[in-house]
Amino acid sequence: VQQPPSPDALVEMMLKVAQARDRQAFALLFRYFGPKLKTFFLRWTMSSLVAEDLVQETMLTVWRKASYFDADRAGVATWIFTVARNIRIDHLRRHRDPSALPPDPETAMDTVEDGMLGAERDAAVRDALTVLSSEQQTIIRLSYFSEKSQTEIADELGIPLGTVKSRTRLAMNRLRALLEDKS
Amino acid sequence: MTTTHHATDETLMRYAAGTLAAAPAIVVKAHLASCPACRARVGEYEALGGALLEETEPTQMSATALNDVLAMLDEEDAPVSFAPPPLAPVEIEGIRLPDALRGCDIGRWRWIGPGMKMSRVGVPQDPDANLILLKVGPGRALPDHGHVGTEFTYIVSGSFSDRFGRFLPGDLAEMDEDVEHQPIVDKDGECICLAAMEGKMRFKNVIGRMLQPIFGI
Ligand SMILES: [Zn+2]
Ligand SMILES: [Zn+2]
């Protein structure tokens, strides 16, 4: 089994793509993130064909907008997540209204002011996630991989809305405490 | 700008996850532009999305996927550079509006009641979006109402008060379903706000019910 690339190695690949238009680095990013992105799109109940299309669109956008990547603001996984998120939203809109305008060219990344570098924060968040209880993790995953509101999540899990709210809040507080420890 | 009323964590997480509908997302984006604290939280929730993506199990891609994309790179032009051209400010009849409204179709002010004007905002990405600008005169009360879904209100200028406190420019009022309230604009000037509804507004009194077809919300 191959070791996943370290956050720093991913940053190096991104910078090679941005500055040197390095296709080998791009291919490495594609091999690592492509299959994960495919699962991401499949979770939104898309067909395998559509999911692959959107992976290609995501990675093409990564290539085009590589110069917008700023390692101080976000780690590579986070940046690629935001690109995929926007591609998914645009896909939904095109689906609903074929005459809709082309996607907003603006990148969605917002400035982050907690003093941590992007790759550090990514690593910290990933560590923090493993500390959460499995119930908390389930709720967080449902919030990111489905359009469901907390009310709908409560229905799906067969638990009261108050429990969903308190589990989410506990998970978020836990996460914030762990992140503040690190920064 | 000192912000005292913020988006809830659930809302910021949905914004970062990309599951907030277009109209509320625009209102939240307006607040983010003036609130470093909420921006930092969105950054954390995006990092959470990144972490979830990385721990996702891979699904095998078709054998040609990588080569197909590499072939597409050949047709790519130069990479997008930094420094996009400066954009004109968004405004309505000379009043500066949040940049989050860029690309939206902003209608003219229409009279909807004494001291009250409304402009309907068209969101190109979502034809069903309920997004409006409201301009209410000093000391005026908005109709007493409850909500079917969450109501998101960003204060552009002026201020209003309701039983939850005083709302100033840059603030975001997020009112849950089953909350009833009656915002009253403070006496020192008119108030302009940007409001998005997830569901319909429920007006209590007769005037409110008469307004409802005009609001269309
Ligand atoms: Zn805020
Ligand atoms: Zn209200």
Automatic annotation (TrEMBL), chain B:
Residues annotated as domain ChrR-like cupin: 108-194
Pfam families cross-referenced by the UniProt entry: Cupin_7 (PF12973), zf-HC2 (PF13490)
Annotated ranges, domain Putative zinc-finger: 10-39
Gene3D superfamilies: Anti-sigma factor, zinc-finger domain, Jelly Rolls
Record's signal peptide: none
InterPro entries: Anti-sigma_ChrR (IPR012807), Anti_sigma_zinc_sf (IPR041916), ChrR-like_cupin_dom (IPR025979), RmlC-like_jellyroll (IPR014710), RmlC_Cupin_sf (IPR011051), Znf_put (IPR027383)
Name of the protein this chain belongs to: ChrR family anti-sigma-E factor
The species this protein was found in: Shinella curvata
